[in-house]
Structure formats: C-alpha cells, structure tokens
Batch of 2 targets.
Target 1
Amino acid sequence: MFVRPMGKAWVKARRHDRFYRAAKKQAYRSRAAIKLSQIDRRYGLFHEGAVVVDLGAAPGGWSQVARERVGPKGRVLAVDVAAFVPLDGVEFLRGDFRDPKVQALLFERLRDPADMVMSDMAPKLSGTRAVDVARALDLADAALSFAVRALRPGGIFLTKVFQGEGYREFLKQVSGHFEFVKGVKPSSSTERSAERYVLADGRL
Ligand SMILES: C[S@@+](CC[C@H](N)C(=O)[O-])C[C@H]1O[C@@H](n2cnc3c(N)ncnc32)[C@H](O)[C@@H]1O
C-alpha cells in the first residue's frame, strides 16, 4: 500500500483547510473571518455598541464578525471597490477607498467618531513580491491617514500589510499616533505568506 508522506506542505495545507472549514461551518463569507476572530479573542478588539469601519470589506467575513460582536446598538460601515451582497445591519459604500469623494461620503455617513477602523484591503497581486509589498503598504498608509481622522481618542486601528521593505517604517509611523502598536500574525494566516496585521490601540 502506498502511504503518503506527511510532509510539511501537506500538514500545513490540511491545517489551513481546517480554517476554511471552520469559516464555512460558521457561515462566514470568508476564511479571513477566522483571522479576525482569532485576533479579537487574543486582544479584545470589539465591545457592545461600538462603531466599526471595515475597509476592503468584500465578500463580508470581517463585517459579519464585527456585526456579531458590536450587537444591535453598534454600527458597521463597510467599504469596497467590489460588489458586496447586502448583510443585515451592515451599511455598505461602494468605491475606491483612496478616492477623496468616497472618504467624504464615508465621513458623512459616520457622523460620530469611530471606535475602530479595520482594513483588510489587499492589492491585486502582480506576482512580483516587491511590487505587491509596496502596493499593500500604500493601502495600509491610506487606511492609517483615514483612521487617524476618523477614530475617537483611544480608538483601535487594525490593518493588513505584507512584511517586506517599508514594514518597520510603517510600524514606526503608526506608533506616532497610538499608545500601543504590534505586528500580529494569527495562526490561520498562511505561514509562508508575507501577510501580517498591524494592530494599534489607544489613538492619541
Ligand atoms: C482580502 S479581501 C477582504 C476580505 C474581507 N476582509 C472579508 O473578510 O470578507 C480584500 C478586499 O480589498 C478590496 N480593495 C482593494 N483595494 C481597495 C480600494 N482601493 N478601495 C476599496 N477596496 C479595496 C478588494 O476589492 C477586496 O475585496
């Protein structure tokens, strides 16, 4: 009988499948929902009644998690350049987040300062690592500028980045606006990918 060797790649693939299955089982729209749940369990991102802005929200896994955590008194405002199948209790705005008109509309809809701004925005991958790292950092940078203006003092910012050139500088830049800054990599994020999350708490 042929026994398949349980190589590292196979073990990893199976583990990641586990997160895919977990997302499906909980009826989340994306595997990314599990990453946010893991970060939340560890660091306690949400509270009942919180106002949350979700940048790069489609297909909607993060918005689902936020919706569950903030409860009926909270608000979730989601933005994406791609289409978004409506989700109960999630206010969606379609457009390129970097467009000043889209940001102006978002501020208008927000009305009050947000408790949390989270961004899982990712560029279309070019296949050239340096280009993808730089594009992801540009998006994270745009999310940071918005978060600094949109958050209440003490608010939380979470953003996806790709580790590489500019990552350390970005952490430093975020540190200038928050009391606590940390790079996090949930176990559900594929180990060999450059994906990281920057978590910042306590907007100054
Ligand atoms: C990894 S997916 C987000 C997954 C989402 N967090 C979830 O749980 O379903 C990245 C998203 O970022 C969006 N995106 C990328 N650049 C954007 C931009 N400039 N403005 C708005 N959305 C953008 C993409 O359209 C894509 O839907």
Note: The chain has one domain: 8-203.
Target 2
Amino acid sequence: MLNSENFSSIGDFERQAIANLPPHLFTAWFGGPGHEHQAAIANRQAFERTRLVPRVLSGIGEQTLSTTVVGTRVELPVLLGAVGGQIRFHSDGEIGSSRAAAAAGTVFTLPTGAHFTIEEVADASSGPKWMQLYYLADDELNKLLVQRAEAAGFKALLVTVDNAGISSSERLARFYRGSRTIPWRNLTETIPGKVPASGDCFELVHRHVGWKDILRLRKYTSLPILVKGIQSVADAKLCVEHGLNGLIVSNHGGHALHSLRGTLDTLVDVVDAVGSQIEVLMDGGVRSGEDVLKALAAGARAVLIGRGLIWPLTAGGQEGVERALAILRTELSRAMRLSGVGNVAEVPRELLYLGR
Ligand SMILES: Cc1cc2nc3c(=O)[nH]c(=O)nc-3n(C[C@H](O)[C@H](O)[C@H](O)COP(=O)(O)O)c2cc1C
C-alpha cells in the first residue's frame, strides 16, 4: 500500500519503481548501460542545461494553470502520454492512470498496446481521453480503432511516427521476444482473427508509413490529429502543410534512435519555425514542475509524461499517479510564482537561458 506522503518528487517514484520491478524489466524500458540510453540522457541534459531567468515584483495574484490543447480543456498542462502495456507495471493498468488523469483534470492517452479496451476505459473514467495509434499495416484496423475511439468520446488522435514497431535496441527486442504474454486487447479480443500466429501485435504495425497514410485518417475521423515523434524543423513544417492540428516533439523517450538531441532543444527550433501556425507539444525528460515551465517558455502548449506516469503507477497504481500529478501541479505553481508568471498560456521565452 502506497503512503503518498512519503513521495515528494518524481525521483522518489523512480527509486520505488527500481525497487519494485525485476531488473531486466526496468533496464529494458528505462535504460541500461552503454549507448542505448543516450537519447534519454540527452533529454534530461537539455532540461538541466537550460536555466530560468525569473522576473520579480510582478505582483501576480491569481494563477491560471488551465488551458486548452487541440480543443481539449485541461486543468494542468501536463498530459499523461502514451505508455503501452501499463498492466506490466501495476494491475491498475490504463484504468488506474485514466482515473488519475480525470482526478487532475488532464488528458489520459490510451496506447494502441493497452491491456484495457477503448470501451472499458471510457466506462471507467469521465476525464478527457486521447487515443494513440501505431499506424497498422491493415488499414481496416486503423479505421476501426479510430472510429471506436471517436464513438467512445475520445477527444483527439495521436499518431506515433518515430518508432514503427522497430525495437530501439537488441535488449528491447530480446525483452519483447521473451514476453509476448501482454496482448493488445483492442485488437485481440475485439477484432478476432487479426492477430499473427506469433501473438506479437507489434508485427501488425506498418513499417513504412507515409504522409498519404496520415492523411487517409482524415477520412475516418473528425477528431483533431496530432503526430507524435517530430524531431526536425523540416517535418514540423510538413505537419503544418498537411493541415494537422498539432505535433509532438518527441524521441519516444529514447526508445527510437540513440544519437539524438534532447527534445527541449528541438522544441525551441520547432516553435521558432512553426509555433504560430500549429499547436506544439513535447515530451522527453519532464520530471518536475520547473521542467514543465521551461517547456512552456520554449513555446510548448503542454507537455506529456512517460516515465513520470509509469514510475508512479509502478509504485502505487492509480493513487501513485494521482500523487505524482499533484506534485507536478504544486511544483509548477511554485515555479510560476517564483518566476513572475501568472498564466500557463503566457509564459515568456525570455524566462529561458538556453545555455547553448
Ligand atoms: C514503458 C514505456 C512504454 C511506452 N510505450 C509507448 C507506446 O506504446 N506508444 C508511444 O507512442 N510511446 C510510448 N512510449 C513513449 C512515451 O509516450 C513518451 O514519448 C516518452 O516516455 C517520453 O519521455 P519520458 O519517459 O522521459 O517522459 C513509452 C515509454 C515508456 C517509458
């Protein structure tokens, strides 16, 4: 049983997750020795190198932490990102996370690789929900998933494009080969007969998705569409040209390529290029309220958290995630007050010292 009072930072949850998880699971997902942890480290380094330049005597009284993201209202600009197979980490799984997001008034993102189905999560949680899609090779499945999500009241579609079913390392590939026991129930139970003989749902993922595929989704849904995994200004411009509602600067938390920039650094360049034309979000390395404030100052509309969700879920299920979101809220509010910022939608770029 979690004693939430013992947890006062995301780092506390990380330490508890290390204690709770078998070492091979922790290492496969959150990084081990050698080069394969590089991008996750770069994400953290970008936050650590980037400093705040606070303003004083701003006389700010009331604070506004609520905003909208592609039309979804949130009470906190910290969204729960797509994390597949949450049941591996705690039996509350995606149901627990979605309820924790609802309690905080923020978005829960249901991954394609979820244990709980779209309809189960919709029944369990009244909060705002987005659907994450790994674009599948069988287009009929994409259509069915997207339309089910829309029918169940989900508010946006987030398409992951940086890691198309390709394991980022031999370690992760070996981990998958050894653990095919977590079926993607949105496919296995609700669309029988589509799962490969190996039982590995990752085999269903399209290996060479292109813009025409993303555009095809427009025919299936009227939901706002965001692309997740943008890492260059050139691709950010294409998101604008193709009329997307939003883009997420992300390197899959380091689970794609390894020799990458920190996403906070990429975010600055992407916002400079297209920030006035499309909503820009980011993830990768967010661990504190000050990190959130830095990303907002760089021009992100909101951030998403991966490890910041799954470590608390591992440590304490739904209650752990609720506590983590409460900590991030308190930290963000304090950082805003100490920096002279009153509104999450109006964080000035001058707050950042980029140190590069
Ligand atoms: C355990 C784990 C599972 C993940 N599963 C998915 C997934 O199914 N789909 C996806 O788009 N991203 C997935 N991601 C990536 C996250 O959505 C996000 O991009 C990343 O974790 C952000 O970095 P952070 O962990 O430093 O917050 C996963 C990340 C982790 C840690």
Note: The pocket of flavin mononucleotide is lined by residues 29, 43, 81-84, 111, 113, 132, 160, 228, 250, 252-253, 255, 283-286, 305-308, 310 (CB under 6 Å).
